[in-house]
Design brief:
The structure holds 2 protein chains of 2 kinds.
Chain A: E1 12-18, E2 29-36, E3 47-52, H1 63-72, E4 74-79, H2 96-110, E5 116-120, H3 123-134, E6 139-145, H4 159-165, H5 167-176, H6 179-185, H7 194-201, H8 211-218, H9 229-238, E7 246-250, H10 259-268, E8 273-276, H11 284-287, H12 291-303, H13 323-329, E9 337-342, E10 348-353, H14 354-370, E11 378-382, H15 387-399, E12 402-405, H16 411-422, E13 426-429, H17 431-440, E14 445-448, H18 454-460, E15 462-465, H19 466-469, E16 486-491, E17 501-505, H20 506-520, E18 527-530, H21 533-536, H22 539-542, E19 545-548, H23 561-570, E20 575-578, H24 580-588, H25 595-602, E21 606-609, H26 616-625, E22 630-632, E23 635-637, E24 640-645, H27 648-656, E25 666-671, E26 676-681, E27 700-705, E28 712-713, H28 717-723, E29 730-738, E30 744-749, E31 754-756, E32 759-761, H29 764-771, E33 776-784, E34 791-798, E35 806-807, H30 810-821, E36 829-832, H31 848-859
Parallel strand pairs in A: 3-4, 3-5, 5-6, 6-7, 7-8, 9-19, 11-12, 11-13, 12-16, 13-14, 14-15, 18-19, 18-20, 20-21, 21-22, 34-36
Antiparallel strand pairs in A: 1-2, 2-4, 9-10, 16-17, 17-28, 23-24, 24-25, 25-30, 26-27, 27-29, 29-30, 31-32, 33-34, 35-36
Helix pairs in contact in A: 1-12, 2-3, 5-8, 13-14, 14-15, 23-25
Chain B: E1 2-6, H1 11-22, E2 26-31, E3 41-44, H2 50-57, E4 62-65, H3 76-97, E5 101-105, E6 117-120, H4 133-147, E7 154-160, E8 163-164, H5 172-180, E9 193-194, E10 197-198, H6 199-211, H7 213-216, E11 220-223, E12 229-230, H8 231-242, H9 253-257, H10 259-268, H11 280-287, E13 290-292, H12 295-301, H13 309-323
Parallel strand pairs in B: 1-2, 1-4, 2-3, 4-5, 5-7, 6-13, 7-11, 8-10
Antiparallel strand pairs in B: 9-12
Classes of the chains: A alpha/beta, B alpha/beta.
Protein name (chain B): Nucleoside-diphosphate-sugar epimerase
GO cellular component, one term (chain B): cytoplasm
Organism (chain B): Arthrobacter subterraneus
């Protein structure tokens, strides 16, 4: 064998295997090539991984598993299927059933016994599943990477495959020329190195060597008439009873094995742990390190016996989210306002009483059920906040369907990624969303939220209209969903990488409602202006009348003072939920408030600003607008809302009366009722490795435990494992410390910690010190250079609106250094930018990673455009 | 300890000798001109004189070797004779005289080629890859010195990066003289992050290497203040200390692109003494990042710089203020 990068030559082995496959004449012996890390193993073997490649790769695909397995005591055997790789070319057309029998012949000849873990990719996934199904006594676990077991007869075959199967193209593309091979290799992201490409080409240098590729493509069971169709269907059905752990590692950017196939597999193997590597593609084993997660996962399976530690006692009282709608809809206040939308004219555009809301929810639930929405169905809701969305949400929850909510603020690309990744069964959208669904090919039965003409409905693939579905006369009578079943997938803002889906159960959402009610003292009958989505949706669950102000929800900065005050006046609101960006614009447009609106604002008792940090100067200005309101600035994240709460008075007290632990960060208050906070201290490399503690002044990752913390991330097994590695706690990825009185001070993101030679630095404290300077509007502290010896750099936006980016003028640099020296910090450089990059959703969180990248380039002596 | 310091008439050599005297050591110096270090015994001589070397190391327990041909241009043979042959002969003499400790004062330029260095570790010296006769011969001499490390004679190399201080003719005086006539170029906007070493800190680090020989022998350690700064800020602060206007920030893009050669030409054309004061080598130093990971150095030497950059600039200002 030629030398192959990443492969120990000792692993390459040949074995003569007597065949029992139907395709081979009696007495046939086939020569197999396989990679086996047995020679590299020392000590006891924990088990064996049997790796099956697809078409047109070969055992080389699994080299990282062989290396990592050898280090961790796992034997890894990666075969070259017959006609493929360096195995024998018999010249016979092998069908799926032959290939499964081949694998059994091979493992028999090698005397491979359990515990066995099958690992498959592409059509090797099918072969490995067929083998797993028939050899259950030895089977310990199943690992799958981009593959498929079932083709929906009503869905089109992926275009690239249709092309390869086309009679005229087929032979030319697969064996006569290496086009199929080269196309597959080109799917790697990032590109494969020339050495690795050469290794993949090695067994397929000539047309005759490539005949197996052609025949493999020809064996894809495209329809019921195909000879392998029955076998595929049998396996697809049988695996539903596989009771071993399953891990699926997926590259979503795969033109063939898209999320649709992943989704099908998870329905058949619901126990599967799934991780989608955002940005990776078909050759996920090349695109990402899959070896480490596989062995971590296998290790976890060995050490813990099944059940995950519940985040909190899952028993206890539980009131369904729709209870208040039901109670109030049939009670004394049935005719009072429940939900309302404001029009741009300052008047109420749409209003439902509690009775109407109750009716609409149960009618729509019945209508949705009629068209096939069931408990566990995923329904993507792409409807702006307001009456319609409220009815939809509660109808879905009532049915036990799982709502998928992604913020339109993610932008077309981010939204598309989120929707495709969740593979909704149904998609309810306004026309704009339906157009996007059509353009980007989002999956799911399409339901139009608004009126759409018939011709347009056909064009957009709309099969149902919301108005038809809620028009029925019968109420939904089905059983309530179980409290511990999935209720919602909410997407994060994506300010720290691709947006992540966060799964909540009914019990957890109800706990979020209860926490909010206790924290803010919201009782049934209160009235709120809903300008901040996640909390606003809980209005009806709280028994509170809620009104949505007239604004473009994709841009919080479009909420005007007039719109806010009109909405408050319309329902005599006592509470306002909004984001800092919205409140900033409210202040900017305060002059337009009408006398009636001004009066309504003076009645506000609670104003809650959530979603991003808010500067205290802004709070002061706001107080003038809502003089009787207590201003709350809770801290939380999509995974846990809220974690802490504090009001303006509390912030003032925290600053005025220092206790041990005061300072170096933003004070976000104490844990909300039912929530606990602890800190996992940072080590010198910036990793949060400390044993969780509540000791004041210890800086580390913030951990939270509460009944309203998320259940898990959606199809992000690795991310979930990291976030819940302290059993029972959610690791937030934020850093901070507690003070003596139990208040939390947030110091920034874990990923933004600066690891200098003299110790670990967190960004928020120094940024606050710099921002006290009159000459500075905004600041970001970042680290450049290798971890452990990073140089701290202050990047500031000058208050004078200067457009220069680069070295700060000496005077400004001196004042910044002066401001930081009080905290004992001496930055390596002070740079200026005209503006700092921020997240798309709240336009408030500084993207320090982008700032750091820019600063690193500039300080290396390379000019670079501002981020 | 009885210690010989070669090259003590220079700024750093003088600082090392002074530090040793202050610490109570018996200090002998060796160079062509008087060292001017009170309390040290000067022996005049040349590295090319083997017999002289043998005489001057006799009775010494430690040697700190700073003498070298430091220049941006010149005849390669001269560099070889002084930096390579001179070091080899001094090592031989030290071994013959029973010297126990030998500190070779080297330069970070022995290991890199002009690429940017960001939090870099001390890589092995590489004469084949570095630019210019100075760096090449210093790389060769460092290899010779570290190869001589053995049971009887322990050898370590210390590489201070851009040493400066009051009376420094290499960097400070040149910067000030250019700035005085308003022609100090700054490449790429002067943002490259550069480590420097205030002279007293370089001296204490070198003395620490002698004392901590059991931990550092056979190794090369980069020494800096551990406070990298953008070159533009450094030059501005040198100018401020010297009482001259700070340099222009913006430089035409073409000048940045042709960094080394453009500056070389620029400087050559304006100096009459025949030696361009700044060549591609220095241009590289001033236009790309050059800063180092100091953790290992500080741990092995059990040393930290006692003069922070800001104190160094204050001393520089006092120096020039005193003279004015």
């Amino acid at each position: 064998m030629v030398e192959l990068p990443g492969v120990d030559p000792m692993w390459s082995t040949y074995l003569d295997v007597p065949s029992t496959a139907a395709v081979d004449p009696d007495g046939t012996v086939n020569r197999w090539h396989y990679l086996d890390n047995l020679p590299s193993l020392v000590g006891e073997t924990r088990g064996t991984l049997l790796c099956v490649h697809g078409n047109p790769t070969w055992s080389y695909l699994w080299r990282t598993l062989l290396a990592a397995g050898a280090r961790q005591g796992w034997r890894v055997v990666a075969v070259d299927q017959l006609e493929m790789g360096l195995s024998e070319r018999s010249g016979r057309k092998r069908r799926l059933a032959d290939r499964i029998r081949d694998l059994e012949d091979f493992t028999g000849a090698l005397r491979l016994r359990g515990p066995l873990v099958t690992v498959g990719h592409d059509w090797g996934g099918v072969v490995s599943l067929g083998f797993a199904d028939r050899n259950r006594e030895d089977l310990a676990a199943v690992v799958l990477t981009n593959t498929a077991i079932h083709q929906d007869p009503n869905a089109p075959i992926p275009a690239p495959l249709r092309l390869a199967l086309n009679g005229a193209v087929h032979r030319l593309g697969t064996s006569t020329t290496p086009a199929f091979l080269e196309t597959t290799l080109a799917l790697a992201r990032p590109r494969l190195s020339p050495e690795v490409r050469a290794a993949y080409r090695e067994p397929y240098r000539t047309a005759s060597r490539r005949r197996g590729i052609e025949q493999f493509v020809a064996d894809i069971p495209v329809g019921p008439a195909h000879p392998s169709h029955a076998e595929l269907t049998r396996i697809a059905g049988n695996i539903r009873t596989l009771d071993v752990p399953v891990l699926m590692l997926w590259g979503p950017e795969d033109p063939i094995f898209s999320d649709t196939y992943l989704n099908d597999l998870t329905r058949r193997l619901p126990q599967a742990d799934v991780h989608r590597f955002e940005g990776a593609g078909h050759l996920v084993a090349e695109d990402r390190d899959i070896a480490a997660p596989i062995f971590d996962w296998l290790g976890d399976r060995e050490s813990i016996s099944g059940a995950k530690v519940p985040a909190c006692a899952s028993a206890g009282s539980f009131t369904p989210l729709w209870q208040q709608i039901r109670d109030r809809g049939t009670g004394d206040s049935a005719s009072t306002p429940a939900v309302a939308d404001m029009g741009t004219d300052g008047e109420v555009a749409r209003l439902l009483s509690w009775r109407e809301l109750d009716h609409r929810v149960s009618r729509l639930a019945a209508g949705l059920h009629r068209i096939g929405v069931r408990s566990g169905s995923r329904v993507s809701l792409m409807v702006p906040p307001g009456v319609e969305l409220t009815v939809l949400i509660y109808a879905c929850l009532r049915l036990g369907a799982v709502i998928v909510l992604a913020d339109a603020g993610l932008g077309a690309k981010g939204l598309s990624r989120a929707v495709r990744g969740t593979v909704p069964d149904f998609l309810v959208g306004i026309e704009r969303a339906l157009v996007a669904a059509r353009v980007f090919g989002w999956p799911g039965t399409r339901i139009s939220a608004g009126p759409v003409p018939a011709s347009r409905a056909r064009l957009l693939g709309v099969t149902h209209h919301l108005s038809d579905l809620s028009g029925g006369s019968s109420a939904y009578q089905g059983a309530d969903p179980s409290p511990d079943s999935d209720a919602a997938i909410l997407f994060t803002s994506g300010s720290t990488g691709p947006a992540k889906g966060v799964v909540y159960t009914h019990r957890q959402l109800s706990a979020m409602r209860d926490t909010l009610a206790v924290t803010l003292g919201l009782t049934p009958g209160s009235a709120l202006v809903a300008g901040f989505a996640p909390f606003a949706l809980l209005g009806p669950a709280l028994g509170a009348s809620s009104v949505t102000p007239a604004m473009d929800v994709t841009a919080p900065g479009t909420l005007t003072a007039r719109a806010l005050s009109d909405a408050a006046a319309a329902i005599e609101a006592t509470t306002v939920f909004a984001s800092p960006a919205a409140l900033r614009n409210v202040l900017a447009t305060a002059a337009d408030i009408t006398p009636r609106g001004g009066q309504a604002l003076r009645r506000i008792k609670i104003l809650l600003s959530a979603g991003a940090p808010i500067p205290s100067s802004l709070l002061e200005e706001l107080q003038a607008l809502v003089p009787s309101a207590s201003l709350h600035t809770p801290y939380g994240m999509t995974e846990a809302l809220p974690v802490t709460d504090i009001d303006r008075e509390g912030i003032r007290k925290a600053a005025a009366l220092p206790v041990p632990g005061t300072g170096n960060g933003v004070c976000v208050g104490s844990a909300v009722p039912a929530a606990e906070i602890c800190i996992s201290a940072l080590d010198s490399s910036g990793a949060a490795s400390g044993t969780p503690t509540t000791k004041p002044g210890v800086t580390g990752e913030i951990l939270v435990r509460a009944p309203h913390v998320k259940d898990r991330y959606f199809r992000l097994w690795l991310t979930e494992r990291e976030s819940s590695r302290t059993a029972g706690w959610h690791r937030t990825g934020d850093v901070g410390h507690l003070d003596r009185d139990g208040r939390l001070w947030v110091e920034g993101r874990l990923a933004h910690v600066i690891t200098s030679a003299s110790g670990v630095l967190t960004p928020v404290g120094p940024e606050q010190a710099i921002e006290k300077l009159d000459a500075v509007r905004q600041a970001a502290m970042v680290g450049v250079g290798p971890a452990g010896t990073q140089a701290a750099v202050a990047v500031v936006v000058p208050a004078d609106g200067g457009k220069a980016s680069g070295l700060a003028p000496t005077g400004l640099a001196d004042s910044v250094r002066q401001a930081l020296s009080m905290g004992g910090l001496s930055p390596a450089a002070v740079l200026t930018l005209p503006a700092l990059p921020t997240d798309v959703r709240h336009n408030a969180k500084i993207d320090r990673a982008a700032v750091a990248k820019w600063a690193a380039d500039v300080l290396e002596g390379r000019g670079r455009k501002a981020p | 300890m009885k210690v010989l310091v070669t090259g003590a008439s220079g700024m750093l050599g003088g600082a090392v000798a002074s530090r040793l005297v202050r610490d109570g050591h018996t200090v002998r110096t060796f160079q062509r001109r008087p060292s001017g270090v009170p309390g040290a015994v000067d022996v005049a001589g040349d590295l090319g004189d083997r017999a002289g070397l043998l005489r001057v190391v006799s009775g010494m327990e430690g040697v700190i070797h700073l003498a070298a041909k430091v220049s941006f241009t010149g005849n390669p043979a001269d560099f070889r004779r002084i930096n390579v042959d001179g070091t080899a002969d001094l090592l031989d003499a030290a071994r013959a005289a029973g010297v126990e400790r030998f500190v070779q004062v080297s330069s970070p330029s022995v290991a890199h080629t002009g690429d940017s260095l960001v939090g870099a570790a001390a890589e092995p010296a590489n004469p084949q890859r570095v630019h210019g006769a100075y760096a090449q011969t210093k790389a060769q001499s460092e290899i010779l010195a570290l190869a001589a490390d053995g049971r009887d004679l322990a050898v370590a190399a210390v590489r201070p990066h851009i040493v400066w201080g009051p009376g420094d003719a290499q960097l400070v005086e040149r910067v000030l003289s250019r700035a005085r006539v308003g022609r100090l170029p700054l490449l790429s906007g002067g943002t490259a992050l550069v480590d420097t070493t205030y002279v007293d800190n370089a001296a204490t680090a070198i003395v620490a290497a002698l004392a901590r020989m059991e931990y550092v022998h056979g190794q090369a350690l980069v020494v800096t203040n551990g406070e990298p700064r953008p070159i533009g800020e450094l030059l501005a602060r040198i100018c401020a200390a010297g009482g001259v206007p700070e340099p222009q920030r913006s430089v035409p893009g073409w000048l940045g692109r042709f960094a080394g050669s453009a500056v070389e030409t620029f400087w050559r054309g304006t100096h009459a003494d025949g030696e361009p004061p700044m060549t591609r080598f220095l241009a590289e130093q001033l236009s790309t990042a050059h800063w180092f990971d100091q953790r290992r150095t500080r741990e092995l030497l059990d040393w930290t710089p006692s003069i922070p950059l800001d104190d160094g600039f204050a001393r520089l200002a006092a120096h020039y203020g005193g003279r004015a």
